[in-house]
Amino acid sequence: MSGVKLYGSPMSTCTARVLLCLEEVGAEYELVPVSTLTGEQKSPAHLARNPFGQIPALEDGDLVLFESRAISKYVLRKYKESGTDLLKEGNLAESAMVEVWLEAESQQYNPAISPIVYQSLVVPKMGGGTPDQAIIDSSLEKFKKVLEVYEARLSKSKYLAGDFFSLADLSHFPYTRYLMVTPYASVFESYPHVKAWWEDITSRPAFKKVSAGMLGS
Amino acid sequence: MAIKVYGLPQSNNALRAMAALNEKELEYELCPVDLQSGAHKKPEFLALNPFGQIPVVQDGDDIIFESRAISRYIATKYKESGADLLPVNSAKFETWLQVESSQFYPAISELNFELLFKPMFGMTTDMSNVEKQAEKLSAVLDVYEAHLAKNKYVAGEVFTLADLNHMPEIFLLLKSPKAELITSKPHVKAWWEDISARPAWKKTAASIPL
């Protein structure tokens, strides 16, 4: 099988999500840098790949995809013969749970965690600005409520979708990885099952490799 | 045991689940959840959805929450019933499912909340937020306009779940003062006119008390 081209940056959360999938399945790929520092994601060349002007985008022959969660599914399906099954599409009940917790990541977890990461890391590093503590504080309150739900879930289930590691767990990695380099990492101390889950998934070789390409490694 | 939908007939996200059930020609029981009295935060409901939100679908032993997970579950489990919402497991299909979720939904749902739901609950619409979200949505819909000029439906030539997931919010926006965000874009408008003419959608729309 010939390789794919991933356009993005190893430091970008959404690019990292796809890199993790590529690493998990052992795919052959080329990471083509697209710099958000220079605004390259809004260049005509990149807009032709992703009309929303964001990274990542994936090229596989004539096929072009964008939206990291869609690209992730594409990669996992394309390489399912690798033996790594993170979607469980052969089992309706299991795949339904993968979808539920993928949606929870996207609709519950991400809106709470991303303002904390954005204010603490992106605002000072990319814009040279000062973090808005009011936004951080209100996001932290929301995030703790989300973590309570995750704590209860992970007390009953080894991984989010069940007793198997899946795309649902993987999808949480990039933003959580960045929370861990902010002063707010300690929030996980109050949620022992979430903390244990985090330590488990980050011990995977794919996670170590992708983490090394991100800031604060 | 019939499929149960825990939600409300005017809820954008519950409608996503009900629209899918109607496309699949499935019978279901709508179990209203009294949000005003905080029923969604009580233990009986949290046992169904620990995030305390509607909708939740119960089908036999399966309890599913998150409306996009629900609509996909219905489309998958009942693939042979009614319209096939997953005809091709294509890259374009998955991409535009995500586009609805990450690009389209944030701006349009906030617009609908400001313009339609806040007045219903006696809250004041934040007009500067309305203008901000309208600008965001307009930029997103420019991309849709270009896409729908080359594609009959968002995933290609056939109606799929990716189109369906957009429908409740568009229906609501068309009842608001910002309807022109949709109607001013010829291909977006034509796409809406096509998909909203589907008999299953007409059944869903008729059940919305707005």
From TrEMBL, chain A:
Signal peptide feature range: none
GO BP annotation list: glutathione metabolic process; response to herbicide
Gene Ontology CC terms, in alphabetical order: cytoplasm
PROSITE patterns: GST_CTER, GST_NTER
Reactions catalysed, as given in the entry: RX + glutathione = an S-substituted glutathione + a halide anion + H(+)
Gene3D superfamilies reported for this sequence: 1.20.1050.10, Glutaredoxin
GO MF term list: glutathione binding; glutathione transferase activity
Protein keywords: Transferase
Domain GST N-terminal: 2-83
Superkingdom per UniProt: Eukaryota
Domain GST C-terminal stretches: 91-217
EC number: 2.5.1.18
Family: Belongs to the GST superfamily. Phi family.
Protein name according to UniProt: glutathione transferase
Organism, as annotated: Rhynchospora pubera
Automatic annotation (TrEMBL), chain B:
Biological processes annotated in GO: glutathione metabolic process; response to herbicide
Domain GST C-terminal: 86-210
UniProt cross-references to PROSITE patterns, sorted A to Z: GST_CTER (PS50405), GST_NTER (PS50404)
Reactions catalysed: RX + glutathione = an S-substituted glutathione + a halide anion + H(+)
Pfam families: GST_C, GST_N
InterPro entries, per the entry: Glutathione-S-Trfase_C-like, Glutathione-S-Trfase_C_sf, Glutathione_S-Trfase, Glutathione_S-Trfase_N, GST_C, GST_Phi_C, Thioredoxin-like_sf
Gene3D superfamilies linked: 1.20.1050.10, Glutaredoxin
Keywords of the record: Transferase
Gene Ontology CC terms: cytoplasm
Name of the top EC class for this enzyme: transferase
Keyword Transmembrane helix: no
Positions of the GST N-terminal domain: 1-82
Record family assignment: Belongs to the GST superfamily. Phi family.
Name used for this protein in its record: glutathione transferase
Organism field: Rhynchospora pubera
